[in-house]
């Protein structure tokens, strides 16, 4: 290896073709690109053209498609470049095992769990954007990071905000954390109106630009429900220390309340590059080309309590936190089935939380997970039960 190569920071991006992944590479490019970073591996799924383009632009050593069916296409696209190509679960495992000190975990869903655990166990710093690692396998994942010796750097804007303002030397005085939610496109809709929600209306998030599934999860507040469970695991909190408040402007990303009555908040324009940049350069801060807040233009910040009748997902998250064990995995697995069914127009918008609640009730006696295999088993069982309720 040349001296120049050895001085570059080694990074891997699991899920480079999604929203988080493309924004991560945008930040990497702004901080010096391939002159400053040695990209060990990039992984994607079906967007082979983009994955190949990323691999060539950033000089990745390995490019992986999660789909075995796309292996030949990726190999053809990178022919003659010297970039290694792999596919499937074994390919993802190879990418996670690559010698990168910093790994962006941005693969969506349970597919991201195993490779992220692999990276954590070998001691990499994990920039975490995959929800399932904490929602479904929280204790096991946090233990893996701790034993591996790496750092857990949250990328979700809300958790990154808490990470920025939660002072570890003041943890004894921590009283509560307050997660903010925009309220989504149906914040002012009646329950009757929400009965006629379509996929197109549900995907229109008022503040953030996101993919289809996460936009619908945000509209139902299931995204916030998952973030509650994530926060419990990330910051070692009791369920009663976690609050949610609706904040339509999405300027305050989250708040931390202390025993003396002080509340510290992190503010910023809605741009994922802020959280990604902080995770990439932590503990330093670096200049980023993001929009600056103009307080005079904002003029006001509004807050309101979420309506538990219209948005029962938050109650279900609290029940899962209190139950512990595999309840988070069950909630998430059932939610995924219900979400897919809504997108396919097999169920209505308000049916999603009902299916999740019934699945959680039917699987409330499942034993706690002792291994990652137990987490996968709970997830699969929840999906089977939820599918039977459609």
From TrEMBL:
Matching PANTHER family: 1-DEOXY-D-XYLULOSE 5-PHOSPHATE REDUCTOISOMERASE, 1-DEOXY-D-XYLULOSE 5-PHOSPHATE REDUCTOISOMERASE, CHLOROPLASTIC
Sequence positions that bind NADPH: 17-20, 47, 130, 132, 211
Domain 1-deoxy-D-xylulose 5-phosphate reductoisomerase N-terminal, residue spans: 11-138
Protein name per the record: 1-deoxy-D-xylulose 5-phosphate reductoisomerase
Pathway entry: Isoprenoid biosynthesis; isopentenyl diphosphate biosynthesis via DXP pathway; isopentenyl diphosphate from 1-deoxy-D-xylulose 5-phosphate: step 1/6
Cofactor or coenzyme needed: Mg(2+); Mn(2+)
Family of this protein: Belongs to the DXR family.
Example of a GO biological process term: isopentenyl diphosphate biosynthetic process, methylerythritol 4-phosphate pathway involved in terpenoid biosynthetic process
The EC number(s) this enzyme carries: 1.1.1.267
Functional note: Catalyzes the NADPH-dependent rearrangement and reduction of 1-deoxy-D-xylulose-5-phosphate (DXP) to 2-C-methyl-D-erythritol 4-phosphate (MEP).
Binding sites annotated in the UniProt record for Mn(2+): 156, 158, 227
Domain DXP reductoisomerase C-terminal: 267-384
GO MF terms, alphabetically ordered: 1-deoxy-D-xylulose-5-phosphate reductoisomerase activity; manganese ion binding; NADPH binding
SUPFAM superfamilies: 1-deoxy-D-xylulose-5-phosphate reductoisomerase, C-terminal domain, Glyceraldehyde-3-phosphate dehydrogenase-like, C-terminal domain, NAD(P)-binding Rossmann-fold domains
Pfam families: DXP_redisom_C, DXP_reductoisom, DXPR_C
NCBIfam families: Dxr (TIGR00243)
Domain 1-deoxy-D-xylulose 5-phosphate reductoisomerase C-terminal: 152-235
HAMAP family for the chain: DXP_reductoisom
Catalytic reaction annotation: 2-C-methyl-D-erythritol 4-phosphate + NADP(+) = 1-deoxy-D-xylulose 5-phosphate + NADPH + H(+)
């Amino acid at each position: 290896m040349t001296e120049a190569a050895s001085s570059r920071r080694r990074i891997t991006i699991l899920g480079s073709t999604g929203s988080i992944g493309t924004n991560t590479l945008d930040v990497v490019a702004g901080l010096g690109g391939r002159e400053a970073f040695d990209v060990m591996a990039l992984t994607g799924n079906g967007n082979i053209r983009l994955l190949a383009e990323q691999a060539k632009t950033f000089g990745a050593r390995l490019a992986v498609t999660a789909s075995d069916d796309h292996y030949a296409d990726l190999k053809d696209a990178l022919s003659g470049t010297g970039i290694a190509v792999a596919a499937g679960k074994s390919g993802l495992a190879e990418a996670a095992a690559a010698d990168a000190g910093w790994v962006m975990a941005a693969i969506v869903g349970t597919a991201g769990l195993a490779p992220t655990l692999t990276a954590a166990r070998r001691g990499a710093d994990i920039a975490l954007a995959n929800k399932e690692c904490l929602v479904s396998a929280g204790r096991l994942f946090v233990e893996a990071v701790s034993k591996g010796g790496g750092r857990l750097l949250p990328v979700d804007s809300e958790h990154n905000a808490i990470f920025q303002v939660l002072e570890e030397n003041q943890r004894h005085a921590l009283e509560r954390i307050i997660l903010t939610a925009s309220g989504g496109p149906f914040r002012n809709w009646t329950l009757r109106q929400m009965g006629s929600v379509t996929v197109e209306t549900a995907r229109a998030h008022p503040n953030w630009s996101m993919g289809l599934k996460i936009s619908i999860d945000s509209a139902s507040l299931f995204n916030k429900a998952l973030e509650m469970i994530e926060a419990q695991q990330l910051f070692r909190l009791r369920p009663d220390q976690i609050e949610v408040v609706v904040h339509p402007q999405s300027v305050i990303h989250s708040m931390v309340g202390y025993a003396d009555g002080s509340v510290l908040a992190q503010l910023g324009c809605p741009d994922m590059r802020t959280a990604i940049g902080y995770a990439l350069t932590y503990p330093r801060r670096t200049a980023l080309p993001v929009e600056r807040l103009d307080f005079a233009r904002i003029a006001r910040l509004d807050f309101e309590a979420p309506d538990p009748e219209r948005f029962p997902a938050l109650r279900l998250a609290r029940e899962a936190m209190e139950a512990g064990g595999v309840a988070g995995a069950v909630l998430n697995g059932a939610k995924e089935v219900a979400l897919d069914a809504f997108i396919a127009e097999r169920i209505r918008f308000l049916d999603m939380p009902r299916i999740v609640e019934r699945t959680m009730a039917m699987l409330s006696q499942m034993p706690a997970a002792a291994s990652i295999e137990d987490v996968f088993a709970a997830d699969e069982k929840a999906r089977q039960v939820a599918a039977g309720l459609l």
